UniProtKB/TrEMBL annotation:
Family per similarity comment: Belongs to the Dps family.
Protein name (record): DNA starvation/stationary phase protection protein Dps
Domain (Ferritin/DPS) ranges: 23-162
Lineage, uppermost ranks: Bacteria, Pseudomonadati, Pseudomonadota, Gammaproteobacteria, Alteromonadales
PANTHER family: DNA PROTECTION DURING STARVATION PROTEIN (PTHR42932:SF3), GENERAL STRESS PROTEIN 20U (PTHR42932)
Length: 170
């Protein structure tokens, strides 16, 4: 499925080539965030252990915030003349990472795995920023704001798996 620009317009003052490149960057981030929100909800449903309730309740606000981020990106893609495609098969087909592998599991196991998920999402958001800084300052600003929240969410996760000496459990 092609995610290239299909409209005959883009944002005023932006050329078609920049719009198409921006849409490609945003599409990649949208796919990652859809995957992240589903992974967060999966963990919410399947986490067990002594710290269950704290983690269970920590994840729902993250799900809601990531869902809002996804919507913002999809609407920006449409604003630039693109088509945001969020169907399940298209998401799986377009992602470049393996599916989250833990089912029902202990808090520590899920949070160590979730930290790795955040490493990927946040690292790729930073890579997108490098490209967006040359293409579209509006999209760049949007991703910067999202990254600030995503990094804070990762800090919340790490607070559960960090030792008093600052080492993360693995």
């Amino acid at each position: 499925m092609s995610n290239s620009k299909v409209a005959e317009f883009t944002a005023p003052g932006m050329n078609s080539e920049s719009a198409e490149q921006t849409i490609a960057q945003l599409d990649n981030r949208m796919v990652a965030l859809i995957d992240l929100q589903l992974t967060l909800k999966h963990i919410h449903w399947n986490v067990v252990g002594p710290s269950f309730i704290g983690v269970h309740e920590m994840l729902d606000p993250q799900v809601a915030a990531v869902q809002e981020m996804t919507d913002t990106i999809a609407e920006r893609i449409a604003t630039l003349g693109g088509v945001p495609v969020g169907t399940p098969k298209s998401i799986v087909d377009r992602r470049s990472w393996e599916d989250y592998s833990i089912g029902k599991g202990l808090v520590k196991d899920h949070l160590v795995a979730l930290d790795k998920v955040y490493n990927g999402v946040n690292g790729d958001h930073r890579k997108a920023l490098e490209k967006l800084s040359e293409l579209d300052p509006v999209s760049e600003d949007m991703i910067i704001a999202q990254l600030a929240d995503l990094e804070q969410f990762q800090w919340f996760v790490r607070a559960h798996i960090e030792s008093s000496t600052g080492e993360l459990q693995s």
